[in-house]
Amino acid sequence: MDTKQTDLYGKRKIESDLQKDDYLRSFNKDFEKN
User: What is the 3-state secondary structure (H, E, C) of the chain?
Assistant: First the structure.
């Protein structure tokens, strides 16, 4: 039970990191355009 909770937390953290990466990438794209 304990390992499953930490695994879920780790998974969630990875997903949020990926979203942040996508956000920064799209932000850089808009920045380069201007």
Answer: CHHHHHHHHHHHHHHHHHHHHHHHHHHHHHHHHC
Q: Which pair of structure tokens corresponds to residue 2? A: 């304990």
Cα–Cα dist 18/22, whole Å: 6
Structure tokens at 17: 């990191």
- The span from the CA of 9 to the CA of 15, in Å, is 10
5-32: per-residue pLDDT in tens?
Answer: 777 778 888 888 989 899 888 888 877 7
